[in-house]
Amino acid sequence: MSPLRIGLVAEDYYPQLGGVPEHVHHLARELDSLGHNTTIVTSHMRNEGPDPAYVRRVGTSVVIYANGGVARLTVGWRLTARLAALFRAERFDVVHVHGGLNPTLGIVAPWAAFRAGIPVVATFHTWFPRSVGYRVWRRPLQRILARHAATIAVSSVARDAMSRYFTAPWEIIPNGVDTTFFRPGMARGGARHERPKLLWLGRIEPRNDLATVLAAMPRILERHPGAKLTVVGDGPWRARMERAARPFGPSVEFAGYANGSRPGYYRSSDVYLCPTTRASFGVTLLEAMACGTPLVVSDIPAFRDVAAESGAVFVPPRDPAAWAKHVNDLIENPEQREGMMALGRAVAERHAWPLIAQRVLDVYKRVLA
């Protein structure tokens, strides 16, 4: 097959961090490495800085609060016409929309591609318990979805959330992970029982529930006075969480925003804690497993899908006493942690980006055939 010209459309992209920007960025780079020409189409954001040559921005991104966290919408005049003109100018063979049927680009970009006569593939990245908007606009959105050439979900829970409202030939292609960038460091040799290092990493917003980990810290410090929790990330609830952590002094450190340094945080930690209450997948779980870091995570379906075979410890959400107990038990069990390191790396290798990108490319080939 001759090289394809591919447009990846994403409401969220750098400098915004999260699962969708990571997915889109790495998929684009992997498709390029296979000999194709990939362009990322997104909107203008604050502090975006200079873009690489493969990024195009149309409209302006604004922040809203939705689904227990922060979301973005693109606003601007004549978005559909401007996107259609861009798709024609770039001569895309396929437009791949990430966040299908979500406003704004998840709805506008497919219409623009239809207008330009380009087939549309959509990947659905989110889980939600219910959607008033989907219920109200079900029929017109179903008509849009029916014109898609392929519909992908990143997990069974993301598929099931959409299937409550829409019918489509869903297929599941999970998120990937860069297993060369995220990799184990020097052998850590079991327990650092005196000064265990705990890690929380993500966007500081309600659904990622740093509050539960902070509420568990008194019980953890009671059994392990030398324990230290490092919080990596930023977000609208950071100041609130910093105030909640003041009683713990140097036992809790807020390291701030991190991107390229994330592997170092995973590798230097004894346990990665992910108390997220609402997710469709779990990209940070893959990153931690790729680095050989044991997991204590929320017992939610999406996390069981991705991490069940890693030996991860699953804990009920929003239960600080249970979190403290399981973290303490894992700190005191170096043999269990050693086993989790190997199992987690094996799971991550099955999600390596070359494997995931090839599956996506197979969808493109089928659509274009």
Spell out the key features of this protein.
40% helix, alpha/beta, single chain, Rossmann fold, 369 residues
Report the CATH topology name of the largest domain. Rossmann fold
Low-confidence stretches: none
| Total helical segments | 14
Q: What does the average pLDDT come to?
A: 94
Shape, please? globular
Span of the ends, CA to CA: 10 Å
Beta fraction: 15-25%
Structural class: alpha/beta
Order of helices and strands: EHEEEHEHEHHEHEEHEHEHEHEHEHHH
Major sheet attributes: 8 strands, mixed
Helix content: 40-55%
Task: Describe the model.
The chain has 369 residues and is α/β, with parallel strands linked by helices. Helix content is 40%, strand content 21%. The protein is built from 14 helices and 14 strands. The strands form two sheets. An eight-stranded mixed beta sheet has the order 4-3-2-1-5-6-7-8, sandwiched between helices. Helix 8 links the parallel strand 10 and strand 11. Helix 7 crosses helix 12 and helix 10 packs across helix 13. The model has no long low-confidence stretch (mean pLDDT 94).
